[in-house]
Amino acid sequence: MTQAKVSRIPGPNSRRLAQRRAEAVPKAVFNTAPIFVASGDGAGVTDVDGNRFIDLAGGLGVLNVGRANERVQKAIHQQADHFLHECFHVAMYEGYVELAEALNRLAPGDHAKMTMFANSGAEAAENAVKISRYATERDAVVAFSNGFSGRTLLGMTLTAKEMPYRHGFGPFAPEVYKVPFAYCYRCPFGLTHPSCGMACAEYAADVIDSQIGASNVACMIVEPVQGEGGFVVAPDDYLPALRAICSDRDIIMVDDEVQSGMGRTGKLFAIEHFGVTPDILTTAKSLAAGLPLSGITGRSEIMDRPHVGGLGGTFGGNPVACAAALAVLEELTATDLLGRAERQGKLLRERLDPLADRVGIVGEVRGLGPMVALELVADKKTKEPAKAETGAIVKRCIEHGVLILKAGTYDNVVRLLAPLVISDDDLHEGLDVLVEALEWADSGMN
What we know:
By secondary structure, the chain is α/β, with parallel strands linked by helices. The protein contains 15 helices and 18 strands. The chain has two domains: about 10-60 and about 335-440, Aspartate Aminotransferase, domain 1; about 70-335, 3-Layer(aba) Sandwich (Aspartate Aminotransferase, domain 2), CATH 3.40.640. The chain has a seven-stranded mixed beta sheet, sandwiched between helices. Strands 13, 14, 15, 17 and 18 form a five-stranded antiparallel beta sheet that branches. Helix 3 runs antiparallel to helix 11 (about 320-335), helix 4 packs parallel to helix 11 (about 320-335) and helix 14 crosses helix 15.
């Protein structure tokens, strides 16, 4: 892909549209890049001024198979020619069932499974909690520090970050309890893995037993790799420890794969790296390659407990979105895309890992497969978050033709969500821009 800058960013057309946006759309609906997109393909974006961008953001983790994927586009067009919507609750259609069968087959575990569909990751989390509460006849839910589950009332409650997700929107839903995640770079216990003996897991078990009451806990919802929390990767022994905690107490383990799923870590689901089988697994984002769709897949005996009419929604499992998702799953399982993702992850680490020693602002490079991030700090000893510098780096990358995102509880993490179809040349070019921006910030942004 060749970048063609025709104007400063934002260009005149984007600036004119931004004026309309300011009058028509609330400021709370935040935008990272000050541009308006005209077209896109694969891992490239062209704005309304003709500026071409390399995409390392992936539509916020939605475009794993790329923009305008041929298999997905064909499936969408074929379904659209038949019908756009029916509502599965009014009259059924095969695509909903076929997609459920596919996810039941592909999700970890050889037990019988069932799947229902909603529209977003937040709705997936909410339905996972609803189903867990119904199946267990318990109320309490255990979530984690640095976790993110969306912007609905329950989603915000499960989410750990105060600003901007929770601030001013309370009161929140009851019976949600948070325990520390295994964030080893910022261990809340001041320990080091593996000599810590999984103190965070032991602490979670103690909170469940002594403060909540194990017999009151319906489910534990956990991201194998925390997305909005800063791409925090659980140590190899952490998720098995959580699985044991849940199994020993008859607590449903909910695996949140909204951001980490659909090949983002080099496997279809991130939890496959850990050899753990969850009771319920949630998917969204890249599931339908840009169309709104989320899935809740779980053990049949759990999923089939709620009464008839207790689950669903008007648009959940829309036929066009289901067709797109079936094409996504075929793309991920019938091609070498997962192998390509694994190779992308290795390339990223080869380029970025040395920065932790060479660039003072880079505190840690971490990730799983191509789900990679850099945590930026003002001081490597104190680990004081470099929040302002992170925002400036994202802005500088955009100004130089690379779309990129930040994340983290302290807004000091640069995360990479490039479509898995990105070429090595484009990835290297995008990383060149990022590395230059990091060095620029490290030198005082002069």
